[in-house]
Amino acid sequence: MAYSEKVIDHYENPRNVGAMDKDAQEVGTGMVGAPACGDVMKLQIKVGADGIIEDAKFKTYGCGSAIASSSLLTEWVKGKSLDEVQAIKNTDIAEELELPPVKVHCSVLAEDAIKAAIADYQSKQ
Ligand code: FES
Ligand code: FES
């Protein structure tokens, strides 16, 4: 199976790899696993007082498509409101990265992780 150039770019130069303090009130953490393959993705957001996402970080233990999906998503969410981010679909990610059908679940992982991060953030407010 061939990876698209965009996947390879994010895989080789992942954006926003790292971690934030999960106990901080302004940080939301989402950690999800894919039952199909065992890959695990952690995505974190830091939300400003104005409700806009200031920063995002990820750590993904998984395939190239999962790493690329989370890397791309951390870029997309910065500067957006939580409502705007809720509207991002895994299909947007799959389309941008030109994921083949067998790799679409990797983008689902990213959507699930960001939704879990938002839910975690909201539960702390
Ligand atoms: Fe092997 Fe995802 S299936 S890393
Ligand atoms: Fe399972 Fe990519 S193969 S997340």
Automatic annotation (TrEMBL):
NCBIfam families: iscU
Family: Belongs to the NifU family.
Record InterPro entries: ISCU, NIF_FeS_clus_asmbl_NifU_N
GO MF annotation terms: iron ion binding; iron-sulfur cluster binding
PANTHER family attached to this UniProt entry: IRON-SULFUR CLUSTER ASSEMBLY ENZYME NIFU HOMOLOG
Domain of life: Bacteria
Function: A scaffold on which IscS assembles Fe-S clusters. It is likely that Fe-S cluster coordination is flexible as the role of this complex is to build and then hand off Fe-S clusters.
UniProt domain NIF system FeS cluster assembly NifU N-terminal: residue ranges: 2-125
Cellular component GO terms, alphabetical: cytoplasm
A GO BP annotation: iron-sulfur cluster assembly
Name the record gives this protein: Iron-sulfur cluster assembly scaffold protein IscU
Coiled-coil intervals, chain numbering: none
